[in-house]
Amino acid sequence: MQIFGLDIGGSGIKGAPVDLDKGDLAQERHKVLTPHPATPDGVADGVREVVEHFGWTGPVGLTFPGVVTGGSTIRTAANVDKSWVDTDARALFSERLGGHPVTVVNDADAAGVAEMHFGAGRDRKGTVILLTFGTGIGSALFVDGALVPNTELGHLELHGHDAEKRASSKAREDEELTWEHWAHRVRKYLAHVEMLFSPELFIIGGGVSRKAQKFLPYIEGVKAEIVPAQLQNNAGIVGAAMHAADTAR
Ligand code: BGC
């Protein structure tokens, strides 16, 4: 079965039909840049452009880079325009896509669900935490495979700062940090999350998962196993489609 998965990020809006049996993209993904400011209206236009690129008319699962409650209402918007807060995202996207059924889920939660099912978290019991390092830091917390949604561990305070402002992938780029310097910040962040949750496994997702060998060797002193995400940057798209399929069931 195929469902369209679409991942809304701080820099890009990307999507593709997803093969739910394989947990992989059924076609090469299409990406448009996230508009700035990333308002509901501008983002919804980008979403329509990506979906129309494939001529897709079926159900669409979307991710959003903020807290999503009740499968629809946006509660936070750290890296997109603040006018998203309290927006009924499901109604907005459904209307913009000409009435297709849509579902909306937090981006890191979607990536986590995909990794637990098809990737690095497969068959893993106990406490598993997926962290995505991108424009912000997203988190997905699993206990024996069950998701605790909207955990927002990227906003933990670390040395008086919002953790994602110091340790996201964007912080590395903006401050032109070496991989070693950035890894030092990530190590402190992981140690803090470990102190709070004692997970068995950390899965590192986001674009940096492709470059794990550049920073994982510098991360020492964390007891939990640390592995890169296997679906890499497609985890959000696959998870968005999985969420849509689960919701329809
Ligand atoms: C948001 C999270 C999101 C993460 C990654 C954070 O700023 O608060 O909801 O998962 O960025 O996009």
Within the CATH hierarchy, at the fold level, what is the topology of the largest domain?
Answer: Nucleotidyltransferase, domain 5
Instruction: List unreliable stretches of 5+ residues.
Output: none
Coarse shape: globular
Helix content: 25-40%
Average pLDDT, rounded to a whole number, is 96
Number of strands: 15
**What's the end-to-end separation, in Å?**
13 Å
List each distinct ligand once: beta-D-glucopyranose
Order of helices and strands: EEEEHEEEHEHEEEEEHHHEHEH
If you compute it from the alpha carbons, what radius of gyration comes out, rounded to the nearest whole angstrom? 17 Å
Structural class: alpha/beta
CATH superfamily of the largest domain: ATPase, nucleotide binding domain
Pfam families: ROK (PF00480)
Family: Belongs to the ROK (NagC/XylR) family.
Keywords: Kinase, Transferase
Protein name: Polyphosphate glucokinase
What does this protein look like?
The structure is a single chain. By secondary structure, the chain is an alpha/beta fold. It has two domains: 2-106 and 234-248, Nucleotidyltransferase, domain 5 (2-Layer Sandwich); 120-230, Nucleotidyltransferase, domain 5 (2-Layer Sandwich). The chain contains eight helices and 15 strands. It has helices spanning 40-53, 89-96, 107-118, 163-167, 169-174, 179-197, 212-215, 235-248; strands spanning 2-8, 12-19, 24-25, 30-33, 60-64, 68-69, 73-74, 102-106, 127-133, 137-143, 146-148, 157-158, 161-162, 201-205, 225-228. The strands form four sheets. Strands 1, 2, 3, 4, 5 and 8 form a six-stranded mixed beta sheet that branches. It has a five-stranded mixed beta sheet with strand order 11-10-9-14-15. Helix 1 (40-53) packs across helix 2. The mean pLDDT is 96. The protein binds beta-D-glucopyranose.
